[in-house]
Design a protein that fits this description.
The chain is α+β, with helices and mostly antiparallel strands. It has helices at about 20-35, 40-45, 55-60, 75, 95-110, 135-145, 160-170, 265-285, 300-315, 325-330, 335-345; strands spanning about 5-10, 15-20, 65-70, 120-125, 150, 175-185, 205-210, 220-230, 235-240, 260, 290-295, 355-360, 365-370. It has a nine-stranded mixed sheet with strand order 5-4-6-7-1-8-13-12-11, sandwiched between helices. Strand 4, helix 6 and strand 5 (about 150) form a beta-alpha-beta unit. The chain starts with a strand and ends with a strand. The structure holds coenzyme A.
């Protein structure tokens, strides 16, 4: 079957960003206005006052300092608190297609490939802006690619699950080059009125070219040595938005139709799952942990990543061994580990080994072990 390589990655970063200070200032204006409006009920003990948010908490609890977003003004408007993204006509490009095209073109350039040389497109992300036609088919058309395309969603693990699917499709002879795209517009599903979560996510798009090694011509080839995926059902990260919502009018627009999580439980339960998966995968591949130069981990929480690296390596990882991008980008769902890989791989020498690892809702965990070839 021959080996399969990642031959290029691309990144689209939105122009606008929001600092913790800006986000907290807007959130606290909302809280003060709410408490004033509900003053009588609060005084009479009929309702609880809302609590203000703080930059100190956000940075200490998560490591996040800022996030990029598709549209800033709507999010920071205390009367709105969600991005203003006007609907587009059916003959215009959808937003996810538009940012997918930018990231894809960059990945193709690095891979030294033109659109005609890609056989399949997988759009893999946490939230798709419509059920059909697939965003991937729209993207395939916009880029002028032959072959087939489809969407998939495994929440924050969508990219690694997409890479395994791409590698398997190639290994089985059903394609020779696959484009995996992760358009994550997380501001669309984040409840900016929820103090526990309003700081968590950012928007971005990543793209990955996966192809047969014997036809690759990029100067940035990483052979996929192996992939390992795992899922374990949990309600601790959940979003009840869906096409059946209209069947019960009482639930339309309620908070559970956006991202909701039990952050502390997620932290405690997911860290051991991830560490065991990476250690088990390396053992199965007979790769000593000491041979791993870098782990490009999912970017949800800095302490979580430090704990995972410590459990895998048996010691504290350096910034170089486990690079962080969540300080600038926040949690960008499935794109996080790919942004880390995209930004921090150029110093790899041929033969150097690294692990791309994602984790998130489901729960879902994915490990992709790669070795630099050229
Ligand atoms: N500002 C100030 N205080 C806040 C706050 C905010 N924005 N949000 C919560 N707090 C308070 C809480 O009310 C709580 O107060 P209490 O101790 O008086 O009850 C305290 O801070 C601790 O809250 P908690 O939710 O337990 O914080 P945490 O340390 O667990 O951090 C997360 C929260 C979300 C940053 C963290 O749990 C996390 O990142 N978990 C992993 C999530 C993850 O990986 N998810 C995957 C998603 S794809």
């Amino acid at each position: 079957m021959g080996s399969v390589v990642i031959s290029g990655t691309g990144l689209f970063t939105p122009e606008e960003s929001i600092s913790n200070e800006e986000l907290v200032e807007s959130f606290n204006r909302y809280v003060r206005a709410y408490n004033e409006d509900h003053g009588q009920d609060i005084e009479a003990g009929r309702s609880e006052p809302l609590q203000e948010s703080s930059c100190e908490f956000i940075e200490k609890a998560s490591g996040i300092k800022s996030r990029y977003v598709m549209e800033k003004a709507g999010i920071l408007d205390p009367d709105r608190m969600c991005p203003s993204l006007p609907e587009r006509r059916d003959d215009e490009a959808s937003l996810q297609c538009e940012i997918g095209v930018v990231a894809a073109r960059k990945a193709l350039e690095v891979a030294n490939r033109n659109s005609q040389e890609i056989d399949a497109v997988i759009v893999a992300c946490s939230n798709l802006q419509r059920p059909y036609p697939a965003i991937a088919v729209e993207l395939q058309n916009a880029l002028g690619m032959p072959g087939f395309a489809f969407d998939m969603n495994v929440a924050c693990s969508s990219a690694t699950f997409g890479i395994q699917l791409a590698a398997d499709t190639i290994a089985n002879g059903n394609a020779s080059a696959v484009l995996v795209v992760n358009p994550e517009i997380c501001s669309g599903h984040l409840n900016f009125r929820d103090r526990d979560a309003h700081f968590i996510f950012g928007d971005v798009c990543t793209a990955i070219v996966v192809e047969k090694a014997d036809r690759a011509s990029s100067g940035h080839q990483f052979e996929i040595l192996g992939t390992r995926l795992q899922t374990a059902y949990s309600n601790n990260i959940r979003n009840n938005f869906g096409f059946l919502n209209r069947g019960d009018e009482s639930g339309i627009g309620t908070a559970d139709k956006l991202f909701v999580q039990q952050g502390r439980k997620v932290f405690k339960e997911v860290v051991p799952l991830v560490a065991q998966l990476i250690v088990g995968h390396l053992e199965e591949m007979q790769i000593p942990v000491g041979d791993v130069k870098r782990m490009w981990l999912h970017q949800a929480n800095l302490s979580m990543n430090q704990l995972i690296s410590r459990r895998v390596l048996g010691r504290q990882a350096s910034d170089d061994e486990s690079p962080t991008i969540l300080d600038e980008y926040a949690n960008t769902s499935s794109a996080g580990s790919i942004i880390a890989f995209h930004k921090y791989h150029r110093d790899f020498e041929p033969g150097d080994i690294g692990v791309i690892c994602s984790f998130g809702a489901g729960y879902s965990v994915g490990s992709v072990i790669v070795k630099r070839v050229t």
